[in-house]
């Protein structure tokens, strides 16, 4: 039985500006039926809440998956949740004494891939099925298996693994487990993410300078990779559904670039290397934050999700009263 920690979301409106003090978040078997979903008792107000009423339907009726971390070291407990964009209808997906990394939705929003690492074990990749409320162990190779990404048709999975020694990118066919290694360099290739047409994917590599990552785009037809128009220390790329925007980590800032103009919006300095992630419409971005709350009992850190409109600088946050650190949000349909 999974242990559920209580997390009561609260919502606050604010305007993001460069003067906002920001501290933030994280960096670079078989099939099993899960316990019943844990959800807030309150009814979803996703269609009437003024914070989400102006969102496209695909955004406001979608779900945001995220990781809540409690404790440190051997006492670390990571819980994977999903919520509506207005903070309602929180549902528990998985929990472990250890770490959960990098959830990623399928294009139809019915499956969620993520990595899970128990103490003294390597990260393994699981897929959660919303319809059946099950999780399946998908990648159990030796080494670190991370950053899964569904192909647009849901039939394949990209991921990075150190099974061969270096971190390289692999593609698995989900119906039979057939796996192909796509990168073979001596450098580090990680964080793959499919383009919506399935013809290419973006990823992070330090092949030019060790420890200095850049973002590349791999073309399936040619097997060639070209650098994306970013500069400096960049990582964790995600393309918008229309292919016109790139969400990523720009130095220590969650950022979104319009590829045609190369105009970049730096949304926030996350502090612990968390990127922005785009809504299904590409009109909003979500990223995690950590802030300090002072009370009579002292100062404690509060984790939250920030949802920001890319057509203006208005945003709102969904806060964790439990004091857990919120990481790796991803917005699906």
TrEMBL record:
> Which family is annotated?
Belongs to the TolB family.
Q: Look up and give the organism this protein is from.
A: Psychrobacter fozii
The region annotated as signal peptide is 1-29
Q: Which SUPFAM superfamilies match?
A: Tricorn protease N-terminal domain
Keyword Nucleus in record:
no
Protein name (record)? TolB protein
Instruction: Provide this UniProt record's keywords sorted from A to Z.
Output: Signal
**Entry annotated with the keyword Hydrolase:** no
Q: Which InterPro entries match?
A: 6-blade_b-propeller_TolB-like (IPR011042), WD40 (IPR011659)
């Amino acid at each position: 039985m999974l242990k559920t920690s209580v997390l009561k979301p609260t919502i606050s409106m604010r305007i993001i500006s460069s003067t906002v003090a920001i501290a933030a978040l994280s960096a670079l078997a078989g099939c099993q039926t899960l316990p019943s979903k844990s959800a807030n008792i309150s009814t979803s107000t996703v269609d009437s809440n003024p914070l989400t009423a102006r969102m496209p339907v695909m955004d406001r009726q979608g779900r945001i998956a995220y990781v809540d971390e409690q404790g440190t070291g051997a006492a670390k407990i990571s819980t994977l949740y999903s919520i509506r964009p207005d903070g309602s209808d929180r549902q528990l997906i998985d929990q472990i004494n250890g770490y959960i990394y990098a959830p990623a939705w399928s294009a139809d929003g019915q499956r969620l891939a993520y990595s899970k690492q128990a103490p003294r074990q390597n990260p393994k990749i699981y897929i959660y099925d919303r319809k059946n409320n099950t999780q399946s162990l998908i990648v159990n190779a030796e080494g670190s298996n991370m950053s899964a990404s569904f192909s647009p048709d849901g039939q394949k999975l990209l991921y990075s693994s150190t099974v061969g020694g270096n971190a390289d990118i692999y593609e698995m066919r989900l119906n039979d487990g057939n796996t192909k290694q796509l990168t073979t360099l001596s450098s580090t290739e990680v964080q793959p993410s499919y383009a919506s047409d399935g013809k290419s994917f973006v990823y992070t590599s330090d092949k030019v300078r060790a420890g200095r990552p850049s973002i590349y785009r791999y073309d399936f037809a040619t097997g060639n990779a070209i650098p994306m128009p970013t500069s400096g220390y960049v990582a964790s790329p995600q393309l918008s559904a229309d292919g016109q925007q790139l969400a990523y980590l720009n130095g220590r800032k969650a950022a979104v670039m319009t590829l045609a103009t190369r105009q970049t919006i730096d949304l926030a300095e996350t502090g612990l290397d968390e990127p922005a992630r785009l809504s299904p419409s590409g009109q909003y971005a979500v990223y995690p934050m950590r802030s300090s709350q002072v009370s009579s009992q002292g100062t404690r850190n509060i984790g939250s999700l920030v949802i920001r409109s890319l057509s203006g600088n208005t945003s709102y946050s969904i806060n964790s009263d439990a004091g857990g650190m919120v990481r790796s949000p991803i917005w699906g349909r």
